[in-house]
């Protein structure tokens, strides 16, 4: 299998005695933005010196600014089913947990979607546990249909990413035909013995089948895949290097690597005890990981969920995170039922701010909150997307689209305070657009939005 454990362990062993000078050489190389080798990444993971850490964060921040500007894509998860046949020891949905499980009916999905649309969301991540009997692929296809067809005044969900269990080429083809955005699947841990320990006696316990899911997804026509590791299950340094190997294997075999990488950290969940996990990472290590991933794969989006606190999210946005969830509920039917509902959460959240509050705070921090889904709808997916990203031209679409979707959000879901803050930001940002034709078009489109038009994008 392509995650060569001995190779990774060898790299980590060699880098253990890294001197300050060794690490400095890699930092100087990273500044050139010409890519890093595996041994460079292993060395960066050893950085402990405060001055060098500052330098590492600065390089990651500069790369982020160059490629993504100050936009931040906002989305929300939608849990449709908590049936699960697996027993992942870190998850609130593990089959040993005894609670009334359920899946949403079409009507219930529509109700949840309407609430999400009223919050201003345009981009969702559909989440479901693994249960071939209670939650078969046809149910997921139905759920996607319910989501895409539920409109609510100006509200519409324009892109649904799907996070469901590893499956067959045939099932991935069905998802593709139904118009999914990114197919998301977390490897959880790339370390095989740990993987098997964390997923005892279950469908998900087949490491190789799980690891090759993206190959099957792409064979089934899915263009964009999103990876992730649950940091805390095993040595984070091993996981970062393994993520790189997985990404490179996809590039080699299918011409395009990860569209996104998610960086969840292990959190308390129903039926588990955090003290069982010796590899929990602290905030400093977490920030270092985000920065190193940003430097190592500059064109791959980094996603952060509400597992992290508002403070950590603000901080990580500086070093490389490009997408955040907002106003999330991590239980089935959670949006309608609110905090006192009967749903069990998959994990505990730290950031409980509403999307409106998050949008205001992002603007205060100088970010452009974006609800853009343009690439997917323009067919800029897979290698077409990567080519545009790598050419450095993606700025020409991301910023205007971000500004237009922000204006739309403000007009439909904002209050007076947000209108004032956002309008100032929008016109300041338009001033910075270098191509005159794009600047003019953006100004025109902002006016059109104010006059009632919607869903404008480049
Ligand atoms: Fe089921 Fe997924 Fe939770 Fe594992 S992580 S128990 S597969 S919902
Ligand atoms: Fe994402 Fe494409 Fe929109 Fe940029 S233009 S924010 S890459 S969907």
TrEMBL record:
Annotated keywords = 4Fe-4S, Iron, Iron-sulfur, Metal-binding, S-adenosyl-L-methionine
- Listed cofactors: [4Fe-4S] cluster
What PROSITE patterns does this protein map onto? RADICAL_SAM
Outline the extent of the Radical SAM core domain.
68-307
Q: Which Pfam families does the protein's record reference?
A: BATS, Radical_SAM
Q: Which SMART domains would you find in this protein's record?
A: BATS (SM00876)
Q: Does the keyword S-adenosyl-L-methionine apply?
A: yes
In terms of InterPro entries, this protein maps to: Aldolase_TIM (IPR013785), BATS_dom (IPR010722), FeFe-hyd_mat_HydG (IPR024007), rSAM (IPR007197), rSAM_sf (IPR058240), ThiH/NoCL/HydG-like (IPR034428)
SUPFAM superfamilies recorded: Radical SAM enzymes
* Full protein name: [FeFe] hydrogenase H-cluster radical SAM maturase HydG
């Amino acid at each position: 299998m392509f995650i060569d454990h001995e190779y990774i362990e060898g790299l980590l062993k060699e880098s253990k005695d890294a001197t300050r000078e060794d690490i400095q050489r890699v930092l100087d190389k990273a500044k050139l933005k010409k890519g890093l080798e595996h041994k460079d990444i292993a060395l960066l993971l050893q950085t402990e010196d405060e001055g060098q850490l500052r330098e590492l964060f600065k390089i990651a921040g500069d790369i982020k600014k160059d490629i993504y500007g100050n936009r931040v894509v906002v989305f929300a998860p939608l849990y449709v089913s908590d049936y699960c046949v697996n027993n992942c020891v870190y998850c609130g949905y593990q089959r040993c947990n005894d609670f009334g499980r359920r899946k949403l009916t079409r009507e219930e999905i529509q109700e949840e979607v309407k609430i999400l649309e009223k919050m201003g969301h345009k981009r969702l991540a559909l989440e479901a546990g693994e249960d071939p009997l209670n939650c078969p692929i046809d149910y997921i296809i139905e759920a996607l249909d319910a989501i895409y067809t539920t409109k609510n005044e100006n509200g519409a969900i324009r892109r649904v990413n799907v996070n469901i269990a590893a499956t067959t080429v045939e099932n991935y083809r069905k998802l593709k035909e139904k118009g999914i955005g990114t197919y998301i699947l977390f490897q959880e841990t790339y370390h095989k013995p740990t993987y098997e320990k964390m997923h005892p006696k279950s469908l998900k316990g087949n490491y190789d089948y799980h690891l090759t899911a993206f190959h099957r997804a792409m064979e089934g026509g899915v263009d964009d895949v999103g990876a992730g590791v649950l940091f805390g299950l095993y040595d984070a340094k091993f996981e970062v290097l393994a993520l790189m190997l997985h990404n490179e294997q996809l590039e080699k075999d299918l011409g395009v690597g990860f569209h996104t990488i998610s960086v969840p950290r292990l959190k308390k969940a129903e039926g588990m005890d955090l003290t069982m996990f010796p590899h929990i990472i602290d905030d400093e290590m977490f920030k270092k990981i985000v920065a190193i991933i940003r430097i190592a794969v500059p064109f791959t989006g980094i996603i952060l969920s509400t597992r992290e606190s508002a403070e950590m999210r603000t901080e990580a946005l500086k070093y490389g995170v490009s997408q955040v969830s907002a106003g999330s509920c991590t239980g089935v039917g959670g949006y309608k039922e609110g905090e006192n509902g009967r749903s069990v959460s998959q994990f505990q959240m730290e950031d409980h701010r509403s999307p409106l509050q998050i949008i205001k705070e992002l603007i205060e921090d100088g970010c452009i909150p974006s609800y853009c889904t343009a690439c997917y709808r323009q067919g800029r997916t897979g290698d077409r997307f990567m080519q545009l990203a790598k050419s450095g031209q993606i700025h020409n679409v991301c910023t205007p689209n971000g500004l237009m979707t922000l204006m739309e959000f403000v007009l439909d879901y904002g209050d007076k305070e947000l209108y004032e803050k956002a309008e100032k930001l929008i016109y300041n940002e338009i001033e910075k657009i270098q191509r005159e034709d794009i600047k003019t078009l953006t100004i025109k489109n902002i006016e059109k939005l104010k006059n009632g038009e919607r869903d404008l994008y480049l």
